[in-house]
């Protein structure tokens, strides 16, 4: 198995195209065609991660945070930390790949895993990404509809939430007048024709549209395929930041704060008081998620668990919702569990092992007197 197959599997689950526009998800250093040995998972990559990867004979490291986020202007192997890491990766023939905001915005990604660790039920997206889908409409003779629809479905079209192969079909009448050098499947050239057709409509994610059109044309019987593409402003049911769910039973504030501490294995975290005495509906966003505070309030959440909250952010939430800053690292590290689970689904060679970095890459240290 090559590293490329691993990348494709991850991106089928968490497409790079749903990433924040300024992100740098994907291959960071190395090759997409290396023969896979073992895999190391980590939240951040540093020299300790590389040292453990070498020890465990891993030639692929998958991190959540990209090593290369900003343009590299120089490689200073003497004093620059990232340059040293790049040098060690190349020297040890290790490929580095990152799944960042695409992992934040996908189902069973960062926020969904945080919700599961907190034992929430009925988990769904806190909000959804908008305006990244098209409606593909194609006109097909009745006896070819199933074949054309199947081609679009196989290219990734027709997905709505938990449903697959979604389409709309309406019978109608098409017309054409073929020039002398045409070869129509229905009717005759050089005369005005009316034919029975089906209007087939399928919703397709923006990054899949070219493939969907290609596959549709390959099986469509017409010499000239009539189709339309409409951009949609809909929310995409399948992708978005944050998650919201429910506790099995309501908790008082003290019990819920204890639940956060035990579930995330943290002794210190910051919070501000909300307006409710009981906690039942919980919104979460792994990592920096204050910008979705009002989505949490709109969703009817009693509390919002995220990270990187500023002083004035707490002031804004005070009295409205129990806002908890549980730490960036602490709210994201659990996503490695699902990455491991997804990769185990494709590992045909059981000799390939997946390791999670044994240490911590969290740069924050809490002082306890």
């Amino acid at each position: 198995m090559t590293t490329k197959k691993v990348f494709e599997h991850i991106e089928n689950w968490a497409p790079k195209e749903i990433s924040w526009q300024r992100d740098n998800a994907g291959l960071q250093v190395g090759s997409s065609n290396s023969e896979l040995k073992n895999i190391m998972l980590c939240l951040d990559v540093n020299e300790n991660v590389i040292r453990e990867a070498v020890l465990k004979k891993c030639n692929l490291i998958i991190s959540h945070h990209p090593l290369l986020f900003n343009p590299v202007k120089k490689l200073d192997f003497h004093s620059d930390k990232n340059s040293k890491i790049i040098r060690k990766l190349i020297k040890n023939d290790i490929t580095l790949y990152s799944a960042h905001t695409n992992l934040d915005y996908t189902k069973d990604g960062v926020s969904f895993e945080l919700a599961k660790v907190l034992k929430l039920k009925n988990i769904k997206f806190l909000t959804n990404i908008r305006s990244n889908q098209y409606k593909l409409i194609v006109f097909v003779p009745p006896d070819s509809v199933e074949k054309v629809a199947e081609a679009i479905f196989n290219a990734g079209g027709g997905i709505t939430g938990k449903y697959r192969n979604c389409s709309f079909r309406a019978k109608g009448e098409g017309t054409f007048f073929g020039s002398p050098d045409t070869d129509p499947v229905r009717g005759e050239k050089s005369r005005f024709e009316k034919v029975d057709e089906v209007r087939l409509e399928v919703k397709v994610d923006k990054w899949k549209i070219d493939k969907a059109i290609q596959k549709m044309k390959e099986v469509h019987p017409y010499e000239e395929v009539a189709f339309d593409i409409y951009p949609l402003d809909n929310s995409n049911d399948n992708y978005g930041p944050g998650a919201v769910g429910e506790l099995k039973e309501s908790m008082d504030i003290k019990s819920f704060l204890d639940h956060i501490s035990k579930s995330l294995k943290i002794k210190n975290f910051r919070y501000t008081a909300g307006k409710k005495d009981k906690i039942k509906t919980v919104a979460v966003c792994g990592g920096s998620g204050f910008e979705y505070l009002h989505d949490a309030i709109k969703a009817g959440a009693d509390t919002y668990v995220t990270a990187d909250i500023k002083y004035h952010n707490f002031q804004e939430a005070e009295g409205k919702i129990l806002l908890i800053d549980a730490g960036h690292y602490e709210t994201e590290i659990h996503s490695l569990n699902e990455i491991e689970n997804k990769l185990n689904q494709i590992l045909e060679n059981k000799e390939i092992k997946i390791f999670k970095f044994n240490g911590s890459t969290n740069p924050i240290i809490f002082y306890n007197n």
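The first helix runs from residue 3 to 13. The mean pLDDT is 96.
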